[in-house]
Structures are given as C-alpha cells and as structure tokens.
Amino acid sequence: MVQKKISVPFNDEGTIKSLQAGDQVLLSGTIFTARDAAHRRMVEQLEKGEKLPVDLTNQVIYYVGPTPARPGDVIGSAGPTTSSRMDKYTPCLLEKGLKGMIGKGYRSQVVIDAIVKNDAVYFAAIGGSGALLAKRIKSVELVAYEDLGTEAIRKLEIEDFPCTVINAPEGRDWYKESQAAFRKCKE
Amino acid sequence: MREVYYKDIVSKVKLLCQEANYDLGQDVMMAFEQAARTESSDIGREVLNQLIDNAAIASENRVPMCQDTGVSVFIVKLGQECHITGGSLYEAINEGVRKGYEEGYLRYSIVDNPLTRKNTGDNTPSVIHVEIVGGDQLEIQMTAKGGGAENMSALKMLTPSDGVEGVKKFILNTVKQAGPNACPPLVVGIGIGGNFESCAYLAKKSLFKPVGERHSNPEIAKLEEELIQSINALGIGPQGLGGSTTTLDVKIEVAPCHIAALPVAVNLNCHASRHKHAVL
C-alpha cells in the first residue's frame, strides 16, 4: 500500500490539490485538537465578532478528546471521534481559512460542498486505535479553553500520522466509492 | 445470608473499569484474527491488523485502547441471599468507577445535565441495572460504552404485521445509516419484544454475551446468522472504508410482548466490544 508523506499545516497551496479520495497519507507537522465544546465556543466567538484563540489559516483540526497522559508519556489514548457532530460548525471555520480535518465517519453534503468550495480536505483515521495513534504524537501544548478539560484546544506535533483521504477538492466521496465496490446487495 | 463488603465491591469495580479499557476480550481478539484472514479488501485487512496491534500496545502499556473510555454501564445480578455491608451497592459501584477512572488515566466523559453540559469530573454517575436472582452471589458485568456507537443506535415500535421482514429491514437500515460513525466492524445487539424500555435493555444485555456464541434457541440463532450475512453484504467494511467485514457478531435477545406490539431495539457496539465480568 502506497502512503504519501504530507506536511501540515498546508502552507504549500499545491499539496491539497494533489490529494485524491482514497489516498493513504502520513501526516507530519503541527495540528490543533478541537471537538464538540471547542467548536461551539469558537463559532460563538465568531458570531460575537471576537477573534479566535488560534489563527486557523491553512491549519488542520483533529477531532479528538484524549485520555490523560500517564507520567512520562506525551499523551494518553488519542484516536478520532465522530466528525458529523462538528458538521454544523465546519463551513464557518472553513471560511476562516481552515484547510484540513481529521476524524471518522460521514460528513453532511453541506460540509462536502464547503470542502470543495474552500479547497480543503477531510481525512479519516482509524477509530478505536487511540493507543497506536498516540505513538505518532510527539508533543502536546495546551493552547486555549483549558476549562474544557479533554475538550480544550491543544497543539500537537505529529509524525507519520496515518489517514485516508475521504473528501478532497475534486468532490469525490471515498466512503461511497469504497463501500459500493464491496456491496453484495441492492442499495 | 452471605455478606459482601462495600470495599470489596469498590476494588472489584475499579479493576473491571480498567481492564475493560486496557485489555481487549479474548473473544473479540479471535474475531479480529478470523476477520483479518477472510476480509476481502486490502485496506480492510490493514485496518484489522492495526486494531490487533492497538490492542497489544494498550494492554502492554496499560493505556486505553480508545480515547473514548465510555459511560460505565453495569448489569448486576444480586442473589437474594446476599447482603451488602458497609454502604449502598450503588455508591460502591460509583466509588469504584471514580477510582478506576482517576487512577487508571481514563477519560471523564459524563456531563451533569444534557442541556447545560458540565463535565462531572469523575465519570460518574454510571448506569446501573440490578436484577434480583436466586442464590447468595453478587455478579457484576461492566461495559465501557463509547458515544460513537451509542449515538447511532435506534429503537422502533413496529407492529405485528411488519413481521420478521420488518424487523430485518429496520436492523439493516440502522447499520447502514451508522456506516463508519459507529466504528465497524460492529457488534450488533438486538432486542425484540418486551415494551418500549425493556426492549432497549434487552439489546444492551445482548452485548454482554461473548462474541462468536450463538443463541440457545435454534430459530433465534438462525436469525442471527442470517443477519450477519446480510449486514456483511452491505459492503461498509472495517471503518467504513469498504469490505466484507461490517459486523463481528449479531446478538439477539427476545421477550414476550403485547398483542399489538413488535418493538425492536438495535444497540450498536464498536469493534472493541468492551465488557468484563466478575463474581463476588
């Protein structure tokens, strides 16, 4: 299986355009964590005309709420959570320059359209492999919303973090295509 | 009357919470290994192999397999000749959860109120079902139930004319809609019959049975097997990335119901199907 090595954030414009649904990638660089509560707070701040605690331009958000780290560890278990719960907030963040999201599961058509419009990308990581994925996280820094505990925004340094491209600017949907290939019944 | 001490329940529950999160069940590991041999998609096999590696890392490093260490759900069978000494059964279980999650570096995933949503900071309260049974023993079954699969679960009040075909259709639709969200390959827990609330409980209870074990009633066992085939024909595959393994097992529990009713509940479980059990 060919795995493309990709640097994040997406400061090089050509990188996202080179990605296609179904690509296996290894991401290295820095990303931010945010899930339900942090998304809600970010969008509330934008609605009030306030500045976000992080500049999302070209950045990648990982939908994760890690377990606490054991002494000596960088992070606890840290796999992806279900992305669809962030759908309501995602188009607004893409408009603010967000370029990538890592999670698991289906996105709404509204989000897929916003991914195409904003030249962004949605990656799936393996749900329920948090112990394995934590090994690819090299450092963790608390950035904002500390009161949210596991749901706070953290900056992660990752190395060869494995994902599958589900939706890219070309508009295809890898979940639909890959499942159709193995379906043995009427849809 | 046999006595069981509060403090012994606390330490047992603490252990169950940690083992459920660190140690994949042997039944599930065997199902992973079997699926990794038979799965027809390359990426599907890769996902299964990574889940096997993940389980090994979690167990060795005493790190949770998944960051969602779940709602702690208990089914307790309390023998009527067994007396709890030193405190209440409910408080003992919650104290065990508190200790298990704090000392085990597990995530706190419970909010105090569904609308105002403040984290309780110790993963309590847990969900506790108590059944009074014969004998003098205290049996505790625990599952760490993750949010992703629970969110995609569903209950429908079908009626008798819907029949077994209606039941199958509802189950398949629920699994189809869940797709990758519920972390397939799934264990699909099904309750058929009872009433509105007992049907959901039947579905939950079915998930405590070992993966790979068929129902003792041959007709129900046949329905389980048929559903395994049709769910795997959906093509969803491991993590929804396409493949022939969408479910590791289907478990059905049935109960008598009203002449007007045919309730069906589908409680989905992620691939780890975390459940542990102890007898005191």
UniProtKB/TrEMBL annotation, chain A:
> What EC number is given for this enzyme?
4.2.1.2
Transmembrane segments annotated in the record for this chain: none
- Its domain of life reads Bacteria
DNA repair listed as a keyword: no
Listed InterPro entries: Fe-S_hydro-lyase_TtdB-typ_cat (IPR004647), Fe-S_hydroAse_TtdB_cat_sf (IPR036660)
Task: Using the record's annotation, list all stretches that form the Fe-S hydro-lyase tartrate dehydratase beta-type catalytic domain.
Answer: 13-177
Q: Belongs to which family?
A: Belongs to the class-I fumarase family.
The protein here is known as Fumarate hydratase subunit beta
Source organism of the structure: Oceanobacillus polygoni
Automatic annotation (TrEMBL), chain B:
**Any idea where the Fe-S hydro-lyase tartrate dehydratase alpha-type catalytic domain is?**
12-278
UniProt keywords, alphabetically = 4Fe-4S, Iron, Iron-sulfur, Lyase, Metal-binding
Superkingdom field: Bacteria
Q: What is its EC number?
A: 4.2.1.2
InterPro entries, alphabetically?
A: Class-I_Fumarase/Tartrate_DH (IPR051208), Fe-S_hydro-lyase_TtdA-typ_cat (IPR004646)
Q: Which GO terms describe its molecular function?
A: 4 iron, 4 sulfur cluster binding; fumarate hydratase activity; metal ion binding
Q: Member of which family?
A: Belongs to the class-I fumarase family.
Q: What is this protein called?
A: Fumarate hydratase subunit alpha
Which organism does this record belong to?
Answer: Oceanobacillus polygoni
